[in-house]
Calcineurin B homologous protein 3 (Alligator sinensis), 214 residues
Amino acid sequence: MGSSHSMSEEIQELAEKTGFTSEQIEHLHRRFKQLSGDQPTIRKEHFDNIPDLEFNPIRSKIVHAFFDKRNLRQESDGLADEINFEDFLTIMSYFRPIEMNMNEEQLDHFRKEKLKFLFHMYDSDHDGKITLQEYRNVVEELLSGNPHLEKESARSIADGAMMEAASICVGQMEPDQVYEGITFEDFLKMWQGIDIETKMHVRFLNMETIAQCH
């Protein structure tokens, strides 16, 4: 960010784009500089400096999400090699807590944006569907820290969840019918009535990622 007048204008512009307050933006800018080593961009290896992420079972997916161009609201697909501060703020904005003054339309948009971010974490091949294998991968990673759970148990949990998803989204299936995978519309149905707004956020002070992607 620049200096004095231009900097305050830039902060105001970023506040309008992301919904963060000026104070939050300044705090996140300090955190960004700390992570990047005072460089203008962050690369994946910079996330090795976040101790709280070290033991997160889906650490790789969280880091990957910061560079996913779908989350950066870019027209192209794939992964970015590095992100600047505005990109960093865009990603962090998915984790903003709910605001009391939001109307119903804003709340609905806010919720969909969070769920889209979460959907992208599951949809690792970017084809717009979460396949059984992708779902298994996430569940296996989430449960990898549990020494009492075999890989087969994790797979059974994923398979059961996928069957439930099919029944919610497709209804009664024919014996020979194959459920291709969870589309974003299906994903919205599955999360109906679940409080994603409070389950998915990042603490500003230490960027400790908590309680997301169950």
About this structure: The first helix runs from residue 4 to 18.
